[in-house]
C-alpha cells in the first residue's frame, strides 16, 4: 500500500507535466489548427536556456526563470507564429504539420551539434529532503510539480473562461469564420495562443529537467506522450488533455513498477489504442460533427 | 445620399471571377433584396461587401465614405453587421454567451445589458433557451440567435444571407414576421433569400443578379409582377 501511494504520487507528478504539455497541444490545435510535432522540443529548448542562465551565467534562480520564460515566449511563441504559422495557416493542416516536424528536428539537432550531445545535470529546484508521512516517503519535487501545475492550469482556465480575450480564444476555436465576422482579430489570438503555449512549455521544462536531466533528445518521448495524452483525453478539450496527461503518467508509473519497466513507454500506447477503438473523440472530447 | 453604394464590383476565388460587375444601392430604412438563380453570386456579394473577399475592381461606399476592402472589424465599427448563411453559432457556448460575443467590439456596459434584454423581448424563444448550448438549438432558434446577435451591434445596415434556408414552414413564417417587425422599427436590411416571392413582398427594392451581373432591378412590387422574372425565377 505504501508503495502504491508513493507510485501514485510520482505518477501524478509526471502526469501533471504531460498534462501541461498536452494542454499546449490542445490550445494550438483549437485556435490555429496546428498539430505541433515540435511540442517536445518546445520543452527542451527552455530547459537548455535555463541551464545556460543558471549554471553558465550563474544568474539567481528567479532571474533565470524569468529570462527562460521570456526567451521561450519570444522564440517559440512569437517568432514561430510570425515566421512559420502565419504563412502556412492558409495552406491547411498538413503543411503546418510537416513544418513543425522540421522545426522539431532543427531544434533537436542544433542543440546536439552546437551545444552538447551529453546529458546536462540540472540543479534541483526544490529541497531534496524527503517528506515522511508515516511509512510513506514523498519528495518535495513531486508535490511541488503537482501544486505548480495546478496553479498554472487553474490560472489558464480562469483566463479562458473569465476574460474577454479568453472568450475570444474559445470563439476562434469553435468557429473561426464567425469569430472574424464578429470583429475578433483572429491572427492576434493565434499569436497569443502560441505565446501561452510557449510559457506553459517553459514551466514544464523547469519541472521536468530535474527528473530527466537535460539532453537534446528528451523531447521525442515527452512530445509523443503529450500528444497521446491529448488524444486520450480529447483533443478539443483542455480538461481532456489534463485527464489524459494524468492518466498516462499514473498508468505508466504503476505499470512500470508492477508489470514491466522495460515496457514503460508502451503503456501509453495501449491506452491510446483502447481509447481510439472505444471512444475515438477521446474520453472527454466532443465530437466535431458540427464544425464546418 | 445612399447608405450603401456598391459600384461595379468584381470579385472571386483564385482565377474564377464570380462577380463581374455588380452595382447596388440601399437607402436608410429600406429593405432591399437580392434574388437570382444559384451561382448568380448573391452570397459572394455579401462576402465581398464585408471584407472577407477582396474587391478586385469597383468600389463600395458606406454612409458616404469609401470602405472598399476594409477588414470586417472596421466595417462592424462603422455599423455594418453580417449574418452569414448556414449555422453560424459558437456551438459549445450558451445562447447568452453567443449573444454577448456578437457585441465583442463593444465594451461591456449597462446599456449593453439592456439591449440583450431587448433582444430577448424580440425573440422570447431565446430567453427561454438562454442557458442552453447553441449546438442544442433547433435551426430556427439558431437563426434567431444569429439575428439577435447582429442587432446587438445596433447596425445601420444588416446583411442577411438566406435567413430561412432549410427551415420548417412554421419557423419560416416566424423569421419573416421578425424581419417585417425590424423593418417597421426602421432597421435597414439588405438580404439574399431563396424564397424570392416572399422576400419581394416585404422589399422596398430588389436586384436580380445572374452570373455575377446585374440583370434587372426595381421596386419589390414591380419585380414581383414582372412577367419575365416570374417565368425565370419565381417559378410560376
What's the arrangement of secondary structure elements?
The complex is a heterodimer of chains A (292) and B (236).
Chain A lengths: L1 H31 L6 H18 L4 H28 L4 H23 L15 E3 L2 E3 L1 H23 L1 H11 L1 H6 L4 H27 L5 H16 L4 H21 L8 H12 L14
Antiparallel strand pairs in A: 1-2
Helix pairs in contact in A: 1-5, 1-6, 1-8, 1-9, 1-10, 2-3, 2-4, 2-8, 2-9, 3-8, 5-6, 5-8, 6-8, 9-10, 9-11
Chain B lengths: L3 E10 L2 E11 L4 E5 L6 H8 L7 E6 L2 E2 L5 H7 L1 E4 L11 H8 L7 H13 L1 H5 L10 H13 L5 E5 L7 H16 L4 E4 L3 H6 L3 E6 L2 E7 H6 L1 H8 L2
Parallel strand pairs in B: 3-8, 3-9, 6-7, 7-8
Antiparallel strand pairs in B: 1-2, 1-4, 4-5, 9-10
Helix pairs in contact in B: 3-6
Write a brief structural summary:
The complex is a heterodimer of chains A (292) and B (236). Chain A is mainly α and 292 residues long.
Q: What is the number of helical segments of chain A per DSSP (H or I, 4+ residues)?
A: 11
Overall residue-averaged pLDDT value of chain A: 90
What's the alpha carbon Rg of chain A, rounded to whole Å? 19 Å
Q: Main beta sheet of chain A, described?
A: 2 strands, antiparallel
- Regions of chain A with pLDDT < 50 over 5+ consecutive residues? none
Order of helices and strands of chain A: HHHHEEHHHHHHH
Task: Count the beta strands of chain A.
Answer: 2
First and last CA, distance of chain B: 36 Å
- What proportion strand of chain A? under 5%
DSSP strand tally of chain B: 10
Measured on Cα atoms, how large is the radius of gyration of chain B? 17 Å
Report the sheet with the most strands of chain B, covering strand number, pairing sense and barrel closure: 6 strands, mixed
Q: Number of helix segments of chain B?
A: 10
In one word, what is the shape of chain B?
globular
Structural class of chain A: mainly alpha
Estimated share of beta-strand residues of chain B: 25-35%
Label the structural class of chain B: alpha/beta
